[in-house]
Structure formats: structure tokens, C-alpha cells
């Protein structure tokens, strides 16, 4: 008789046949840095996540070491935004200063920079528009290139453009190469959907659009094939890593995109996914094992890299549940 349960009989045999394992090398931890002083403030929409001012980064570096986190992604929340998004590409911008500070505290820390305009631009959009509302691609790309180069100059190890402008990977690759940053990889937010699950992040980053929404540049959640087109384009344009975002409602996209290229696949378990699971665990509607399961399943679907706000807990979860 064929009895699949034979291979589930005890811990030993389950360990032998287990297909997916989580490790701290799988995750990137997003961190929000803000202007100001003495700030370590919990983000109301994302319990357990904090806004840090630059003078608090020594504590962050110590926490990262303590939790075994080797990879982070930086988001900046500047005090002032402007119509040009200039705080995004200022050499003394919030991300640029944070990167220098963190590298001084821990030269081994691998820092990914989120490249976008929405946190720095008065209207909260990721790009510039023509008067008639069309995307102004040339100006948007030009500005994004300035952001990427200035981040690389500040010591950021990898660039992750989340703006969803057509042709941005090719433009950023050329800009980085021309500025002498050939060795800085690009992780494209290749299939980034116009998702409601970004809600808590927009509070955290103060980046909700002042008018309209992002549906003229981010993808329609209804479309799977189109996500593959986006991934294929990023591969062609020279991305080093491709990403699907959000993660959990888009596991089908992750697994199909995985088949499409030899590049490492990343998935972003976004703020809404975090808030949902965090709240359910805090209210004891779910056991904390749900956090482990959520990450395990994103990896099983095909993501070798997971960007997750749960990174600080992951080692403890692995110790408890990868049994
Ligand atoms: C910036 C950006 C967003 C996220 C990452 N980069 C917000 C958005 O596109 O509105 C979302 C991250 C999250 O929800 O955790 N464009």
C-alpha cells in the first residue's frame, strides 16, 4: 500500500523529507529612518516596528547583531518633502546619512536602498506627471537615477527601485555604471501590484498619494500573465534579482515568475500582511507559529529572499518550529 503518512511518522523522518528550510540568510529587514533627534517611536499602524532618528542607529545596529540580521532595506521619512523630490537625492539626505552611519557602526551589514520618490515628493507619488495626467517618464527616470547614484555614493550595497516606471532597470543600470558603480546590483520590484496591503506602510512612510492612486503605474491585482511580462522585462533590462510584491496573496505569481528566469527571486511580505498576522497573534486568534508558516510558504512558493518585518523574530521561530 502506498501510505504517504509513513514519511510523517516522527520528527526524524519529517526532518529527512522536508523540502523547505528557513534561515536568517533568507531575509531582509526593512527599517524606517526619520529626521529629528532622540526618536525611537513605535509606528502606530505597524506594532513592533519603529521610526528611528540617526542618533538611535547605534541601538539599531546592536539589535541587528543580536537578532542575527545581516541584510536590511532602508526607507527614509524626511521632515520636508518638495515638488522635485530633492530630499531623495541629496547627499546629506536621510537615507544617505543613515547608510553612512550604519556602515560606520557595522561595515559588514548589507544595506539595500529602496529607490522611489513617494516618500520625498510633496504629492506622494512615485513619479512626475504631465499636465494631462500622463506619466512623465523621462523626468521621472532622470530623478530616480540621481537617487540611485547618490545612494550608491553613500555606501548602499544594492539598489531596489520600487517606482514601477517602464524602462527603469535599464536606465538605473546605465546611470550606476556611468557613475562607477558597476558592482552595485539592482533588485527590481518587478511585479509590484497596486495593493491595499501597503496601507500601514503609507502611514509609516507618510507616502500616501495626495490625489488619485497608483493604479496608472502599479499593476492590477487581477493580472498574472502581465506580472510575468514585467519580470521578463526586468531580466532583459539587466536586473540582478527580481521581486514580487506583496507576497502572500500573490504566491501563484511568485511560483510562475520563478520558472521564468535563473535570477534569484525575492518576495516582499508587506506592511498589511505583517499587520494582519501581528494583530491576530497579539490577540491570540492565531498561534505565533503562523508567522513561521507564512514565511515558510513564501519560500516554498519560490522566493529565496523574503523582505519581512518579522526578521527580528525569525531565529527564535526557527529554533522553536523548524523541528
Ligand atoms: C514605495 C514603497 C511602498 C512600499 C515599498 N516601497 C509603498 C507604495 O508603493 O505605496 C510598500 C511596503 C509595505 O507595504 O510594506 N513606493
UniProtKB/TrEMBL annotation:
Catalytic activity: 2 5-aminolevulinate = porphobilinogen + 2 H2O + H(+)
Pathway assigned to this chain's UniProt record: Porphyrin-containing compound metabolism; protoporphyrin-IX biosynthesis; coproporphyrinogen-III from 5-aminolevulinate: step 1/4
Pfam families in the record: ALAD
GO annotation, biological process: protoporphyrinogen IX biosynthetic process
Residues reported to bind 5-aminolevulinate 2: 271, 309
Cited PROSITE patterns: D_ALA_DEHYDRATASE
Residues reported in the UniProt entry to bind Zn(2+): 116, 118, 126
GO molecular function per UniProt: porphobilinogen synthase activity; zinc ion binding
Binding site for Mg(2+): 230
Its job: Catalyzes an early step in the biosynthesis of tetrapyrroles. Binds two molecules of 5-aminolevulinate per subunit, each at a distinct site, and catalyzes their condensation to form porphobilinogen.
Name the record gives this protein: Delta-aminolevulinic acid dehydratase
Subunit: Homooctamer.
Lineage: Bacteria, Bacillati, Bacillota, Clostridia, Eubacteriales
Keywords, alphabetical: Heme biosynthesis, Lyase, Magnesium, Metal-binding, Porphyrin biosynthesis, Zinc
Membership in a protein family: Belongs to the ALAD family.
SUPFAM superfamilies linked: Aldolase
Cofactor(s) required, per the database record: Zn(2+)
Enzyme class, first EC level, given as a word: lyase
GO cellular component terms listed in the entry, alphabetical order: cytosol
SMART domains (UniProt xref): ALAD
Residues holding 5-aminolevulinate 1: 202, 214
Annotated source species: Pseudoramibacter alactolyticus ATCC 23263
InterPro entries: ALAD, ALAD_AS, Aldolase_TIM
Annotated catalytic residues: 192, 245
E.C. numbers: 4.2.1.24
Amino acid at each position: 500500500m502506498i501510505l504517504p503518512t509513513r514519511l510523517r511518522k516522527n520528527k526524524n523522518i519529517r526532518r529527512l523529507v522536508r523540502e523547505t528550510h528557513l534561515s536568517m540568510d533568507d531575509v531582509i529587514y526593512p527599517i524606517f529612518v526619520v529626521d529629528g533627534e532622540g526618536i525611537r517611536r513605535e509606528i502606530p499602524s505597524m506594532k513592533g516596528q519603529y521610526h528611528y532618528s540617526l542618533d538611535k542607529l547605534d541601538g539599531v545596529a546592536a539589535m541587528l547583531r543580536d537578532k542575527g540580521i545581516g541584510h536590511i532595506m532602508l526607507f527614509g521619512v524626511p521632515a520636508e518633502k518638495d515638488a522635485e523630490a530633492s530630499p531623495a537625492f541629496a547627499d546629506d539626505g536621510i537615507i544617505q546619512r543613515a547608510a553612512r552611519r550604519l556602515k560606520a557602526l557595522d561595515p559588514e551589514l548589507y544595506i539595500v536602498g529602496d529607490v522611489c520618490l513617494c516618500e520625498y515628493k510633496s504629492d506622494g507619488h512615485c513619479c512626475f506627471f504631465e499636465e494631462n495626467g500622463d506619466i512623465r517618464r523621462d523626468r521621472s527616470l532622470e530623478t530616480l537615477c540621481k537617487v540611485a547614484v547618490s545612494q550608491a555614493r553613500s555606501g548602499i550595497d544594492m539598489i531596489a527601485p520600487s517606482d514601477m516606471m517602464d524602462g527603469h532597470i535599464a536606465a538605473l543600470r546605465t546611470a550606476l555604471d556611468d557613475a562607477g558603480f558597476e558592482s552595485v546590483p539592482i533588485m527590481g520590484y518587478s511585479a509590484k501590484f497596486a495593493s491595499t496591503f501597503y496601507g500601514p506602510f503609507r502611514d509609516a512612510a507618510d507616502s500616501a498619494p495626495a490625489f488619485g492612486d497608483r493604479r496608472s503605474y502599479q499593476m492590477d491585482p487581477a493580472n498574472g500573465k502581465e506580472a510575468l511580462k514585467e519580470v521578463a522585462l526586468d531580466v532583459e533590462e539587466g536586473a540582478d534579482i527580481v521581486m514580487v510584491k506583496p507576497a502572500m496573496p500573490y504566491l501563484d505569481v511568485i511560483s510562475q515568475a520563478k520558472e521564468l528566469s535563473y535570477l534569484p527571486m525575492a518576495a516582499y511580505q508587506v506592511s498589511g500582511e505583517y499587520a494582519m498576522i501581528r494583530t491576530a497573534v497579539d490577540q491570540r486568534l492565531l498561534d505565533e507559529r503562523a508567522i513561521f508558516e507564512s514565511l515558510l510558504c513564501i519560500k516554498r512558493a519560490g522566493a529565496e529572499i523574503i523582505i519581512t518585518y518579522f526578521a527580528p523574530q525569525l531565529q527564535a521561530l526557527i529554533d522553536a518550529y523548524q523541528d
